Amino acid sequence: LCDMSGSMQYGSHQRKISIAGDIVQSVAQSVTHNGDPFGLIGFDDEIREDWISTLSARPHMAIEMAEKLKSYQPNEVGSTALIDTVRMLPRERSLIFLVSDFHMPLKELEESLVLMLRHHIIPVVLWDTAEYSDLPEFGIANVTDPETGSKRTLLLRKTYKKRILESFAQRRKAIEDLFLRFDMQPFFVTNQFDADLLSDYFHQYVAA
Fold first, then answer.
1. DSSP state of 148
2. Which ranges of 7-157 does DSSP label H, i.e. alpha helix?
3. Does the pLDDT value for residue 139 go beyond 70?
4. CA of 138: how far to CAs of 10, 34, 142, 152, 155, in Å?
5. Deepest of 16, 107, 179, 195, by most Cβ within 10 A of its Cβ?
């Protein structure tokens, strides 16, 4: 499941939607190497019918879509259709990679997770330090609301930057607490994707 909402277009080192493309490609190749089927569902405020690749043991279409994700320009839309993706998931218990920056109301996320409990969910959280820790202590900057993903242009001061850092720290803990309540260990990706780290995570929390 891949979040294609507006906040996914941001990133100073690499855009989050591009990182999502790297992750989709990596997972698709690993899964099919083991002989398992792979599928892709993109969503924003709607299920993106043009970004769906049905389950297949030869997911050439999904890998091609992953490559296109790297240059995709998300519209200024939200991610409310996450809950609608549930009806498109397999009936049998499956391994679901949920790739998003999770700049969405936690109540909406929780409602979706409740409906996904039959599956093993791996939340892949994409964040960029330009959204919080790399902001200047003084000057004009675009800042992100960690709950909605909306952008605002502000004149920053040292005290305001501190509030932003605190807000993101609180947001991270809230996201972690929510996932762990459902026995889902989140995997955080900051600025760039490292396939080896995801492999280590998988062997620690999934394969075991």
1. T
2. 16-33, 60-69, 106-115
3. no
4. 21, 51, 12, 15, 7
5. 16
